[in-house]
Sequence to fold (207 residues):
Amino acid sequence: MSTPTGTTSADTGHHLALTVDGQPREVEVDVRSTLLDTLRERLGVTTVKKGCDHGQCGSCTVLLDGRRHLTCLSLAVQHDGAQITTADGLAAADGGGADDLHAVQQAFLDRDAYQCGYCTPGQVCSAVGVLDELRQGHPSYVTDDLEAEVDLITALDSDDLDDELRERMSGNLCRCGAYVNILAAIRDAAGVGDPDAPATTTEEASR
Fold:
């Protein structure tokens, strides 16, 4: 017997409690539902975008318990009790008001770091996560010193920091090609941007 749309059958349903952008949410989900589909279709959080649905574009990125996470690649039931921050809740999570913008969001606006805007929610969530990783000294594939527990934003020179940002943001694709301005925006949000100079060339930024 088929299950009507919008409900779950007795053997596949699961009660899930989440905190989404500071608000407690509870929902019954099919155990086969991804976190992305649960956020969008069951909780109405459409800021989280569905792009490739294969973890290769980054449009679905949120902060999950403080770390950036691709919601299309995990089942919702894996994250019962999790704290989820979407682009809608970045400012509030950083101590701002409901009508405020997070520093990364403001930098994206100031630098015109978007065109169609579809990838932007995932881009800004990932950028916030990236800056947090750098401040905590988490190494990446291009980090020279894998054991130094230092603030990489202040420890690296300009070129090395750009390499880190490109590497860490490489999972967030922009089909419009706004990479130069995205990089500049993240540098601004990190407090190391040059307001009068372009970040780099288009070819370099899209490596």
Summary: The beta strands are 13-20, 23-30, 61-64, 67-70, 83-85.
